[in-house]
Amino acid sequence: MLFRNTPRPPLYAVRMDPDRARQLLARERERIEQAISSLDDEAHETGAEQSEPGDRGSEDLYQKEFDAGLAADLAEQLAAVERAEARLAAGTFGLSVESGEPIPDQRLEALPTAERTVEEQEARGLL
């Protein structure tokens, strides 16, 4: 027999374990910071090598533009980690910032910085 007045469990009860979320975010932060460090090291080495003039102008320009785009992408990824860490601290990690619906653990395992459900991302044309 079902009771109509039986409260439904809250949606947040199905969210990812906070310790697992911290672990995933720490791993993501480390990956991004290593990529940034590697990019900085490469830029430093390239700058040291360019003490002699040469005919590599267009090659160097392409590499600088590529590196600048990669640096911007990494900075955005790091900002996404920081937003996810703030949601974790606030107790809202694993919930869509748009609808409040739970984000499946499988999605968070693959993309710990996910801010929306797959359906919401698709509706925004971001997937």
Furnish the topology, listing elements before pairings.
Layout: H1 18-49, H2 57-90, H3 105-110, H4 118-123
Helix pairs in contact: 1-2
Give a verbal description of the structure.
The chain is mainly α and 127 residues long. The protein has a single domain (16-48, 55-123), classed as Four Helix Bundle (Hemerythrin (Met), subunit A), CATH 1.20.120.910. It has four helices and no strands. The protein has helices at 18-49, 57-90, 105-110, 118-123. Helix 1 (18-49) runs antiparallel to helix 2. The longest helix has 34 residues, at 57-90. The chain is elongated, with a radius of gyration of 21 Å. Mean pLDDT is 84; it is low at 6-13.
Q: Which sheet architecture does the biggest sheet show?
A: none
Residue stretches low in confidence (pLDDT < 50, at least 5 long) are: 6-13
Please tell me what the overall shape is: elongated
CATH H-tier superfamily: DksA, coiled-coil domain
Under the CATH scheme, which architecture would be assigned?
A: Up-down Bundle
Number of separate helices: 4
Helical amount: 55-70%
Mean pLDDT: 84
| CATH level 3 topology | Four Helix Bundle (Hemerythrin (Met), subunit A)
For the secondary structure, the number of strands is 0
Brief description of this entry?
This protein is mainly alpha-helical and 127 residues long. It has a single domain, classed as DksA, coiled-coil domain (Four Helix Bundle (Hemerythrin (Met), subunit A), Up-down Bundle).
